[in-house]
Amino acid sequence: MKHCISAVLLLLWPLLLQARPLLDLVDIQGVRDNQLVGYGLVVGLPGSGDKSQVRFAAQSLNNMLKQFGVQLDESSLPKSKNVAAVAVTATLPANASPGQTMDVTIMSLGDAKSLHGGSLMLTPLRGVDGKVYALAQGNLVVGGLNATGQNGSSVTVNVPTAGIIPSGAIVERSVQQLYDPGAQVVLNLKQPNYQTARNVVTAINQVFGPDVARAEHKGKLVVSAPVDANSRITFMSMLQDIDVEEGSQRPRVVFNSRTGTVVMNDVVRVKRAAVSHGSLTITISEQQGVSQPLPFSGGTTTPVQNSAVNVQERTANMMLWPEGSSLDAIVQAINALGATPAELMSILIALDNAGALDADLLVI
Length: 364
Description:
Number of strands: 23
Structural class: alpha+beta
Strand content: 35-45%
């Protein structure tokens, strides 16, 4: 009996691996994060702040000093390289309450060389409606650095003009939820799929009874839910515990044309195909010379441009892929051809045009 149970578990194990919690597959309509943005000043920089030509940084510093009773002439704005004007962004979580904290991101707006060692002054963060929802302040954590020599040479590592402040903002106002806490909860699939929608409806109805959940289309599900707040929380917690088998997705190959990155998942397959890839290298060298006339010939010395063209073609053997080759076989074959990421894109596009690639191509 134990051996039979073990055999059944081994057969079901691939299916169990595909099961995911329901709330990992869906978003609850109306429960969403909100983007906040603000404008502030970073002070305490060791001479790496905005230069004098960035006038809005000086104007902001002047306005801040006025709030503390320091009056300066508008014609002579303060010039300090220890200050930088920055944009401050944050994401306000759904159902966030006043007093909670959240991370903020700071990015330079002027020509500051580095924000390392700076501190953000108190900055209001506003939503799209113009209301202040949080206040940000604190010391920056910058992952990059910049070093400049006296002769103008410099070294930059990562991005020194951007940083974060962990838990650097305090929520001051709650966001009114957009959803109506009625007798229904709308679930939107993160990746619309007919099989996933069917599996979600089946799993919910098996737990709560028939006709509790229904699918309006492949991306939207409607679930009957209690109206009482406490009962609704219990209902949502039970939804969170439901595991659903995700439907099959079409394999996809993603190209990043800017960085040359190619990403393929493990379900990408190719049909039986033969591929040969070679490269043609053309080298043109220019050399300037002088044509010197013979003595007493009456000629003039003239410059001469000499060009040399060299053509080299790398020969490559034809690679044969068997039917249903896996990702490992594809990668090994392309590496054997010596293809670069850019050439890999061309090979996969050619395979797709030939109908031998069982995947969708996506260029980002």
